[in-house]
Every structure is written in C-alpha cells, then in structure tokens.
C-alpha cells in the first residue's frame, strides 16, 4: 500500500476542511483534491493545489478585466483555435501542483522536463522508506527486436518468476545493507559502538527501483507537453501510467482544454513535406509504393500506420 | 483614471462572488483580489489569482503529506533558514497572477525577467487605448552627473513644464495619426473611401509612453528576485512603483516569506572577499583608508555607505 | 545604410584575423562571420560566434568520445530521425550568437521567445541613434478583412505616400524633441543654461519604429523553433525578413539539420484527429464535404489548403 | 581507469586536429580541450567545446560592433563591476560544453540545475558499463551530529573496510544480475533459450553508485551559479570534486571572470539586515553578545564564523 494510516489520516483531515474564496474554483477537481490515485505497486499521484480553469485561458487570450460574458461555445472554439495554432501562452496561465511517489528510474526520466518546479525528498537529509517497484509478471517483457529502445514479447511465467526473484532479493539485500550502514538509533540491530555512515553516502547502495517522492508543479501548457510525450504509446510503461493518472486530473480540471488536447495533440499526426506529397498523390488516385514514394522505409511505415494501411 | 466604469463594474462583479474550496486560502490576499492598485497616472496592478501560502513553502521543504502540525514559530524559522541559505525551490511552490497596465518602456524592462508567463494585449489584433504616461513635475529629473544610468536633480518648474508640453504634444499627435491611419469604421473622422492601414503597421507610430496591459504570472521565488531588483533604490522610478505595489500584495499573501525577504534580501548587503577583509581589520582596531584597503574607489565608497560611514 | 564607416572598419578588422583551434569549424559559416546581412531599411543580422556543427548533434545523441567514424549518410539519417521524433536535446548542443539591429516593435515580438540570452543596448545609459523604420510603399497594406491579425491589399500609391509622410514626420519630430530634452553637451543646439533630462525619461518620447540593437544567443533547437514560427507565412513581414536572413546562416552552418528542418517543420502539416479521419475517408473514395466532415469551417478550409484543394 | 584504450585513442585523434577560425580563441583552454580530467575513481570531466572569452562579456555589455580597443585594465574593471552588481546577462554570452562521467546519485543532484542542455546516455537504449563508485577509505564519514545533511568524523579503518566490502559486493551482485537478465548475445553466459529482459526494465536493478555519462552545456552565468553552490564547502564531496575540476577550466577560459567570481562570489558573504546591524554596533565599540544581538543562535554563529570570531 502506498500510504500509511497516519498519512491517510492527514489526507482525510485536509480533505475535510472547507474555505471561502473569490478565486475560480473547479468542483470536479476539488473532489479529487489530496486523494492519492494509486500508480504501480507503491506509487501515487495526488493533486495538491491548482490555479485557474478553462475560463482563465480565455481571459488571458483576451487580456480582459473580468470573467467575460461570452457563450461557453465561443470559449470552447477559442480554446480549440489556440491549441490548433500552438498559441501556447494562454495555457501557461493555469497552474497545478502534484505530490508524486515514484521509482527513482522513473524520476530520472521525468526530471528531464525542465520547465517545472520540483521539491524532492532528500536522501542526504532523510532515510528513504523500504519500498521498491516490482513489476507485475505481465509487465515483464523481453527487449524488442525491432526497437532498440522498447519492449517486445512478455516473458514466460517461469522466466518472469526468476526475474522477479532476482529483483526482489537484490532490492531487499541492498536496502538491508543501507540500513546496516546507517546504523540508526531506533533500528532493531542498532549497535551503539559503531558510528552510522553519513546518509549522503549510504544512499548510493540503493537500487534504482527504490521509491522517492516529490512535489511537482507546472503550468498547463508544459503539463500538456509532458503528457503528449509520456502518455504516448512509445513512452516506457512505468512512466506512462503516471501520465495516464494525470490525464484524469486534467479532464476534471479543464475539460475544454482536455478535449482540444485529445483532438489536436494526442490524436494528431504530423506529416512531413515528403509524407504530405505522398498523401496528395494517393488522393489523386496514384498507386504509390515505398520505392516510388521518395520516403525512407521507416518513414513510409510510419505513414502507412497513420493512415491505417499497415500492409501497404 | 485607469479604469472605465464598465471595467470597474466587471471587477465588482468578480469581487462579489464567493466559492467553496479545499485549497489553502489567504483572507488578507482575498481581500485585495481583483482590485486595481493604482500606479503612475493611468496604470495599475491587480492580483487575479494565487496558489499556496506560507505553509505551502514549508510543506514542500518537508515533502509532507498534509499541512503539518508544527508550531507557527517553527515554520517561520524554517522559512528564514531557507531564505538565508538560498534554498529557492520551496518558494517556487507558490504562484501568483497579476493583471498590469503599464507604459511600453516599462514593459520593455520588465519582460527581461524571463521566468514568468505573459499574455500581453496584441496591437496586431487590437487598437491600443489613447493613454500615455506623463510624469508628475516632481518626477522629472536631470541626467545624473555621477551615474550614467540614473537621475540627478529635479528639473526646475519652468523647464519641467516645457518638457511636459513636448511629451504631451508628441504623444497626442502620434496617437491622432495612428488613429487616422487605422481609419476605423466607428471613428469620428472615418472616411469610407480610404482603406485602413493594418494594425500591425500603424502601431509603429506610437510613442514608448503609450500604455499596454498584460497578464503576468510567476512563482514566489522568481517574484522575489524580480522585486529585489526592481524595488531597489537603483531601479528606475517608473518600474519601482509597480514593484512597491506588488510588495504590498506579497506582504498580505505570505507574511512569513515577506519578513524573511526584507531581512535577508532587501536589507542585506553582500561583502566581497576584499570588503570582508577590510571589515575584519576595522574590527581589530586598525585605521583603514581607501588607499590601504586594497579596494577600488567605487567599492570602498559602497562599503562605507553600507557601514553608515559615508565620509570615511 | 545600417553601418557607419567606423563600424564597417571594425567589422573588417575582425574578419581579417585568423586563429588556430581544435574545435569543430564550419567554413561556410566562417565565411559569413561578422558580416552584416541587411534587413529592412536600416537593420541587419550578423553572426558573431557559433559552437558545434551537424556532427555535434550526432555526437550528443550517441554520447560518444570523439567525432565518430560513421558515414555521412548515417549521420544524416540520424538527424532526420531525431527531427521527426522531436528528440530535441541533441539540437540544443549547438549554439549561435547574433548581433541584430531591429525596430523596437519587432524587438517586442522577438523577446517573447524566452529561451535565449539577450544583451540590448540600454536607452537608460546610451542615446539611441536617429534611425527609424519606414516601410517601402509595397509593404504598406490595409488591415485584412478576414484575419483580425494580418494584412490585406497593398495601399494605393497616393495613400501609401500620405502614410509614409506621417510616419516620417512623426518619427523625426519625436526624435528632435528627444534630443532637445536630452540637451547633450555635444549637440548643435546645446544650451548650457538648461539641464538635460535623464535619458531613462527622455526615451519615452521615441516612436516604436526607432531602431534598437542587441546581442542574441540561443541554441539550435530553440533557434529552429523561433524560425518555424517567424519564417512562417503568418508571421508579420517585418520579423519574417529577419527570420529569413537567419535561415541562410542555419543553411551554411548545419546543412543536415537545415534539410531535416525544411522537411519536418517548415514544410510539414499537423493533422488533428478529426482531419486525419477525413483524409482516411477521402482515401477510401468517400466524397466528404465540410458538412459531413465533422470539422468546423475554419479547420475544413485549413485542411483543404494543405491538400491543395482550395475549392473543396 | 575511466577511459579504455580505444576511447583514449579517439581523444588523441581529436586533439591532434587543427582548424582555422575567425572566432575568439583561448589558447589556455584549447590546451585542455577533449582531455579527461579524472574525478573520483572512474569519473572525469572533459571540455568538448566553448564559445566566447572575457572580451565577449565586455562586448555584450557594450553591445559593440567589434572587439574594442580599450585597455585590458578597463575591461577587467567592467567585468568586476558587472559581477559585483549582478548584471548577469553579459556572462550568458559565453558558452561551454562538457562531457562528464559521474555516479548516478551525483547526476541526480546535478540535474536539478535546470538552465543547461543535457544529453545523457540512455539505459533504455544502451547497456551501462560495469563501473561503480567506491569511496576511498578517507572519504567514508559518519553522519554529522550537528548538520542533518552532512558528514562528521571519518570512519575508523575497520569500519570503513566493512562498509566498502558491502558497497562492492552489492554493486557487483546487482550488476551481475542485471547482465544475467539482459542475456546479451555476446555475454559469456548467454543462453540462447532464454529471452533477454528489456533494457528499460533491467536497469532498475542497478545501484545508485553506477556510473553514467552525459554531455552538459551551459552559459558562463549559469555555470558560475552552479559552481558557487557545488564548489562550496557545504556541497557533498562527491559533487564538489567535479565542481573543482570545472573551476580549473573556467580559470583557463575566462581569467578575468574567474578572478571576479572568486572575489565577489566564492569569497563573499551576505549579511542580513540583522547581521549588518550587529557589525555596525561592533564597529562602534559595543560589546555585542548573541543574547543582545537580536539574531538567532544559528545566525549568530554563522556571523561570528564569517568574522573569524568562532569563539564569540
């Protein structure tokens, strides 16, 4: 379980409170506030705070004095126009803050998105909990034979079991030795005659599937960019599940932006000049093949997949 | 006046509304919300939205699950510690959004602070209002003779009056010609036989004291950095008054951070290695002069000013 | 002319020097180095320095120890792959620095691109030259009737002439008064009895077509993003000509990246989920109209334009 | 050894080449170019490329056309002035690129500096080498009893030896199992009947002292900010040694900026308003104690340390 009873109680206390505000408020997101959406075996995503809503995007695009009196349909059309034409600054006017618990190797991918504010628990200062990610057997896959950076077939049961045993044993042993080196006063095997190794050193013995935590805050534009990359089918499964949980919060928070995002980003394809020229020839009735297309093999395959012609 | 009656009414409507939220709320800032704090002759600063409070800084520094149960004094001490040691990331967890009306030459200084989100009214799309900044006579000063980038003595009344006449005349003439070139359909002197010049071109005839507007959103860390530079005595008066109005909102919003900021930033001085060595020699009872100090003249003067020894 | 004789001489001196280096060097860009590419009536773009080349992108993508021994064709294919899949970080490994002279209203658009380093001439500190942008008659266009943010038909000769007279007169008058208020000691009409107004104040009287200058430095990824927006047909003409001059320098500097950029950015189109579905139906032989397409009018028109079916 | 023979040969080849350039060149840095400065047991820092020099900072501050003809002493004074008054943008005009090999737990601290360009070797794509950091016995210290985030006394020989055995054994075992799960075709114990686990999964079994590599590029301003934090006595030893190696490259590259940096950053102290008031009272001959100072205990101690009065 990702949360202790004390933590769960703290969350419930926070959820029980109500305040009065003049700020824009989104009931559907308020409903999710503070709750931990479980991800992987011990991780979670929690929405901690937010600022703005669909109308804030519109208000910024119009640099208006109040919330405006236009029809909802006009606002939705404006949001779609902004998204389609990549006018990104109005989407930067909404902000959201998450509390995330995630394995370190996922955190290392995630942190590459630089336009965000982050406060991570410090293993120089604190002792990390004994929690590490162990995949479900159905998530253990062989190296892909076609994509040097992806997964292929799922491992057979016996092999999966061997892999999980290794992962579990190594994580437990390295954590046990981590604790032994720390020699904390309240540890079971504390030995008063032995100094404890500095935390900033002992942590180097932990494996990359150890869980860490952070507060992560970003604006809606940068969040959507993050999600377009990490909720994508090419993203590693272990970060994609976080992106999917966050997409749920976006849907609750800014439904107009979410809809435009699905249409113009998640479901969109970019056609290069060469690809576009092939589409025009196809529309003109020409029988184009990869050889006559002017495209490389890889680009041809990608185009055919986009057009639902995988066999072409 | 910076606001029309319609704008004022829009603001009053926004202020009248109340919503229920689970989010951290700051009554003192709620009280200021949406209201235009007047700045210069036609400008203003309005707080439009905010996220977080003093406790959010503490919560991020501790990466905690709830709002915590520590004493207020402990939280204040932690904020001071973070500010003193330039642990800046917890301050990035609070966010604020302003609506600002300001002369273009001020906007050009302001925009150099890159770590912010901005939506400015577009003069390609909209027609700018006929409003331009004219200094009060007491703000018209001669070029400083000691600082190539500052002001010296205030102009005498007659000279100030001549300057103001020039500024006013030029601004009015260029605006009149701007409107003439636009040839808007609802203009008094609209001439149906004449095309209107594209807005994106006509705007080039406006002077730099014309007012523009933007939504400007940033996090508390970057806001404090902005304020430390722009509320400083060396900042140009016309941007300093905006910084001072914003400081009031910071004081209402995050009083603990504000206090630490005053102590460790606004009121602090940085001593170079050379300056520090002089201070130590003075404390040891040595009679140090500029010549024996090892400091350049300028640096010596700055040090003596910091130590309230201007004559030394 | 954008350059004085003294400036031209300084540039020639810089161009005459030769140094020995171990760094990657691009002869075609060296040939352009320091030379002013003229833009508009008084502006220019000059490449001042650069770092990296096509091979540096490849080297970073492979995190390799040297420059590698792969074939040029493999490197080109890798660059295309990176561009197509928006792996942007390897393109950040090349850096370029420009010196640009440009009208203030263009500078105001340009500065919105935040991921760059900028040093602009300070009108608090220096006196701006008497140079302002006056469009050529063929660049004076009426406000577009279909696009609220664009140009329509070119003005007729007589009207263009009236507009130019206004622009010239206003710029000259406001500059004359700027100089009068400054009352510089070496000015022809200097009056020793009169104080000079502080530069930081006098500048507010200048019009937005006054030229300014800056050093602008950015990495290749952010430069290409800038160029994709500003070399686009929807960009305002006065910034587009700067983007086009810079594109020439990119072509000389990193020909492999330039080619990929033309194919996958400049010449590419993004199809939304809805647009893609229409393309599939068209390819299946269905006669789709705007009404049956599920697309809005605007989106339909954009799709038909992309497919070279403007009448559809 | 951090480098294989093949890598060393690639570096020598790169170092042997010479090109002609018009760009500013710094012989002392050219001399270091591509060479690996060893750090820790298997790590290194290599300067790969650079752009600009001391004169580029001056040129940007003056927005000048050429390299200028001022005296070197004037340029040095200007650089000091810029550094003292935190005019940071001219320092952004120089850029440097490093190739760094470093333990993952160090990389995790380092990456928090967001204003840089990074390309890290991908463990989704490549197999990491069997190299992990093992501290020297004299670098193994106990947790500090006064600083929750630092080291205290060095471990005694026997204890250090036990710790090192644990670290080595765990790193070797987890790496062995990593390789076993990968089941690479060219591995000694390759088993054709067994699929290899996807690299993106297997990597989670590695410990945080495993070495990774990246290309890291930043501008001089952000580099100096990084170094002021990471070359500081409070930084963890394992990142400080990287900062110290990079400081050497800064000294060779921009000696004027380096000198100003040592005086105004590394050797400087910031006095809060409260601390400053204590210094003034001391200078006036008053006998101030912590109790009468108005400072907290911690702040008092910090001040006394700065003034070389540790016992006060």
TrEMBL record, chains A, B, C, D:
> Which family, according to UniProt?
Belongs to the thymidylate synthase ThyX family.
Q: Which cofactor does it need?
A: FAD
Q: Which positions are catalytic residues?
A: 230
Instruction: Spell out the subunit comment.
Output: Homotetramer.
Lineage per the UniProt record: Bacteria, Pseudomonadati, Pseudomonadota, Alphaproteobacteria, Rhodospirillales
Please report the name of this protein according to its UniProt entry: Flavin-dependent thymidylate synthase
Q: Which residues bind FAD?
A: 89, 112-114, 120, 219-221, 225
Positions bound to dUMP: 109-112, 120-124, 203, 230
InterPro entries assigned to the protein according to its UniProt record, in alphabetical order:
Thymidylate_synthase_ThyX, Thymidylate_synthase_ThyX_sf
Q: What does this protein do?
A: Catalyzes the reductive methylation of 2'-deoxyuridine-5'-monophosphate (dUMP) to 2'-deoxythymidine-5'-monophosphate (dTMP) while utilizing 5,10-methylenetetrahydrofolate (mTHF) as the methyl donor, and NADPH and FADH(2) as the reductant.
Record the organism: Elstera litoralis
Q: Describe which pathway this protein belongs to, using the record's wording.
A: Pyrimidine metabolism; dTTP biosynthesis
Looking up Gene3D superfamilies in the UniProt record yields: 3.30.1360.170
Is Transferase given among the entry's keywords? yes
Provide the E.C. number(s) assigned to this enzyme: 2.1.1.148
Identify the keywords attached in UniProt to this record, alphabetized.
Answer: FAD, Flavoprotein, Methyltransferase, NADP, Nucleotide biosynthesis, Transferase
CDD domains according to UniProt:
ThyX
Cofactor stoichiometry and binding remark: Binds 4 FAD per tetramer. Each FAD binding site is formed by three monomers.
Q: Which HAMAP family match?
A: ThyX (MF_01408)
Please list the GO terms describing molecular function. Answer: flavin adenine dinucleotide binding; NADPH binding; thymidylate synthase (FAD) activity; thymidylate synthase activity
Reactions catalysed, semicolon-separated, are: dUMP + (6R)-5,10-methylene-5,6,7,8-tetrahydrofolate + NADPH + H(+) = dTMP + (6S)-5,6,7,8-tetrahydrofolate + NADP(+)
GO biological process terms held by the UniProt record: dTMP biosynthetic process; dTTP biosynthetic process; methylation
């Amino acid at each position: 379980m990702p949360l202790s009873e004390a933590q769960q109680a703290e969350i419930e206390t926070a959820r029980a409170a109500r305040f009065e505000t003049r700020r824009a408020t989104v009931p559907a997101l308020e409903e999710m506030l503070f709750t931990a959406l479980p991800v992987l075996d011990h991780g979670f995503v929690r929405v901690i705070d937010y600022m703005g809503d669909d109308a804030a995007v519109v208000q910024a695009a119009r640099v208006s004095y109040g919330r405006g009196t236009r029809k909802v349909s006009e606002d939705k059309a404006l949001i779609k126009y902004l998204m389609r034409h990549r006018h990104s600054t109005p989407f930067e006017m909404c902000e959201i803050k998450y509390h995330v618990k995630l394995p370190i190797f996922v955190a290392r991918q995630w942190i590459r998105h630089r336009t965000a504010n982050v406060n991570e628990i410090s293993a120089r200062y604190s002792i990390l909990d004994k929690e590490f990610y162990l995949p479900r057997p159905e998530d253990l896959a062989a190296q892909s034979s076609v994509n040097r950076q992806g997964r292929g077939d799922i491992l057979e049961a016996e092999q999966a079991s061997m892999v999980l045993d290794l992962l579990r044993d190594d994580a437990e042993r390295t954590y046990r030795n981590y604790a032994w080196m720390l020699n904390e006063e309240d540890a079971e095997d504390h030995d008063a005659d032995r100094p404890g190794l500095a935390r900033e050193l002992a942590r180097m013995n932990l494996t990359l599937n150890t869980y860490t935590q952070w507060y992560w805050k970003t604006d809606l534009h940068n969040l959507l960019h993050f999600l377009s990359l990490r909720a994508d089918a090419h993203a590693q499964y272990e970060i994609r599940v976080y992106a999917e949980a966050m997409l749920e919060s976006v849907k609750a928070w800014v439904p107009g932006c979410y809809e435009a995002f699905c249409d113009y980003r998640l479901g969109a394809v970019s056609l290069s000049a060469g690809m576009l020229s092939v589409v025009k020839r196809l529309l003109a009735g020409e029988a184009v093949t990869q050889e006559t297309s002017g495209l490389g093999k890889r680009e041809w395959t990608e185009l055919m997949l986009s057009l639902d012609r995988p066999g072409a």
